[in-house]
């Protein structure tokens, strides 16, 4: 049977593109989402891909969500930790809630999901985990101490888990996207976005499909020697 992939935050933006690209490669795909039922329904109507609603920041919900998937479809071979949020503001205005929500949704989620799939991956001697970081985790960004800290944490998490998984056939890699044309970036004020695009050597925002291409590459059976790496896909904006 084809390998089973779970993509968190798979119903919109980059996650949707990842789901479609994986399915095109012949994988079985399940898309998780957090709260936007309307977007999830539109996604599954459009694509026919099954969706599962659970909050990636909540360990108990993740545990339950994964158990239900495994019961119905068997073990998860490929995990893409893609779900993420922003709560941008400078630190002197940031509330503890804005800090915590971003850390929990972007970083703690990687622990929650990985923890719940790792044992079956270890037992079966195969696993692929791809964590979606960010250029702003590599370079920092004004107004994003919460987001930059969470994304930077993802890069450390990736390298540590890669070392733990290596002997068990589990690879763990990160992708650090630059600015990609999704709802998240469309929420940035137009004048700020203009300045951002001016700093991208390729001269445009990236497309979600260009991130998905990296995921397909990293999760392949043939990619077993690639682990602990970060693939920057950012139009040349930051070379790390
Ligand atoms: P979108 O805002 O377009 O989509 C976010 C997805 O994550 C949605 O499916 C959303 O579900 C889901 N999600 C959010 N919170 C939770 C939660 N608590 N539990 C489960 N699912 C949740 O984001 P993008 O596609 O732009 O971003 C995807 C990833 O790429 C994120 O990690 C982001 O930080 C990262 N990234 C994006 C960049 C960009 O330029 N767009 C640049 C660098 C990194 P729902 O619809 O239910 O809200």
What does this structure look like?
The protein has helices at residues 13-24, 37-47, 59-73, 96-124, 135-139, 145-165, 183-186, 190-198, 208-219, and strands at 4-7, 28-33, 50-53, 78-81, 127-132, 170-177, 230-233. A 7-stranded parallel sheet has the order 3-2-1-4-5-6-7, sandwiched between helices. With 240 residues, it is of the alpha/beta class. The model has no long low-confidence stretch (mean pLDDT 97). It has a single domain (4-232), classed as NAD(P)-binding Rossmann-like Domain (Rossmann fold). The longest helix has 29 residues, at 96-124. β1 (4-7), α1 (13-24) and β2 form a beta-alpha-beta unit. It is built from 9 helices and 7 strands. The termini are far apart.
Condensed summary:
The protein has helices at residues 13-24, 37-47, 59-73, 96-124, 135-139, 145-165, 183-186, 190-198, 208-219; strands at 4-7, 28-33, 50-53, 78-81, 127-132, 170-177, 230-233. The chain is of the alpha/beta class and 240 residues long.
């Amino acid at each position: 049977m084809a390998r089973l992939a779970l993509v968190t935050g798979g119903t919109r933006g980059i996650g949707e593109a990842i789901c479609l690209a994986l399915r095109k490669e012949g994988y079985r795909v399940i898309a998780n989402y957090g709260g936007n039922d309307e977007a999830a329904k539109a996604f599954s109507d459009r694509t026919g891909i099954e969706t599962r609603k659970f909050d990636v920041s909540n360990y108990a919900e993740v545990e339950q969500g994964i158990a239900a998937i495994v019961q119905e479809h068997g073990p998860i071979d490929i995990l893409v930790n893609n779900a993420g949020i922003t709560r941008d503001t400078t630190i002197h205005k940031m509330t503890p809630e804005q800090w915590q929500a971003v850390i929990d949704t972007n970083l703690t989620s990687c622990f929650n999901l990985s923890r719940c799939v790792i044992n079956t991956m270890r037992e079966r001697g195969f696993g692929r985990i791809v964590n979606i970081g960010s250029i702003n985790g590599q370079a920092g960004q004004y107004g994003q101490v919460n987001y930059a800290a969470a994304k930077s944490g993802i890069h450390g998490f990736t390298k540590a888990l890669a070392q733990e998984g290596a002997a068990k056939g589990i690879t763990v890699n990160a992708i650090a996207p630059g600015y990609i044309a999704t709802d998240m970036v469309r929420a940035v004020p137009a004048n700020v976005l203009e300045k951002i695009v001016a700093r991208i050597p390729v001269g445009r925002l990236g497309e979600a499909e260009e991130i998905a291409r990296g995921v397909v590459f990293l999760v392949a059976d043939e990619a077993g020697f690639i682990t602990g790496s970060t693939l920057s896909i950012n139009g040349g904006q930051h070379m790390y």
